[in-house]
Every structure is written in structure tokens, then in C-alpha cells.
Write a structure and sequence with these properties.
mainly alpha, 5 helices, rod-shaped, 115 residues
């Protein structure tokens, strides 16, 4: 019961006075902290912009790589097609070359005909 009487004697709990907590001296004392928070905010914004820019650059590079891959596959298939024997025969026909119909002749040096 003694606890109850002392609580009643103190009266209602006091609300904090915000004007007393945030006075000029407190604000001046915490300027370095506010500057640190401002620096963090600028770094956060910069990081967001940098990430967006990097994401766009990666997307453009991926698109360019896909285009180069398609070009590579097209050129490779064209080279394979042109290197077939039938296509080579068609390509060299205008200059007078023809496919051999007989086996090649092997030239052997005659060992007895030395001078």
C-alpha cells in the first residue's frame, strides 16, 4: 500500500518536453552526425543510380553478344557449306579446274639411272 501512495503523490507521468530536448546546443553538438547521415543518403542515391546504369549496360552487352553469336553461327554454316566437295568443284570450274576421274600417278625415282 505504501507503493500506491507514493505513486499518487508523484502525480501523473510527465511528458517529455521536445523543445527542451532539441534545443540549439543539442543541434550544434550533433552537426557531425547529421553530416554523416547526409553523406550516407548521397551514397545510397549514388549507388542506386550506378546500379541502374550498370544494369542497362549489362543488358546492352548481352544483346550485342547474342547478335555476334548469331553472326558467328551464320558465317560458320556458310563456310561449312562452301567447303563441301561439290561446292568447291562449282567454285573452281570457271578457272578450268576439274575433279580428277583417274587416280593420281606416283612418280618414283629410278635408282639405276643415276649419273
Amino acid at each position: 500500500m505504501a507503493d500506491l501512495t507514493t505513486a499518487q503523490q508523484e502525480g501523473p507521468a510527465k511528458k517529455p518536453d521536445w523543445k527542451r530536448l532539441f534545443n540549439h546546443k543539442w543541434v550544434v553538438h550533433n552537426i557531425p552526425f547529421f553530416l554523416f547521415l547526409a553523406l550516407l543518403a548521397v551514397a545510397y542515391i549514388f549507388n542506386g543510380h550506378f546500379a541502374d546504369k550498370l544494369e542497362r549496360k549489362i543488358g546492352a552487352t548481352e544483346k550485342h553478344i547474342k547478335d555476334l553469336e548469331y553472326e558467328y553461327k551464320t558465317i560458320k554454316s556458310e563456310v561449312i557449306y562452301r567447303s563441301k566437295a561439290s561446292e568447291l568443284a562449282k567454285a573452281v570450274e570457271p578457272i578450268g579446274l576439274k575433279i580428277m576421274t583417274v587416280a593420281p600417278v606416283v612418280l618414283v625415282e629410278n635408282p639405276t639411272a643415276k649419273q
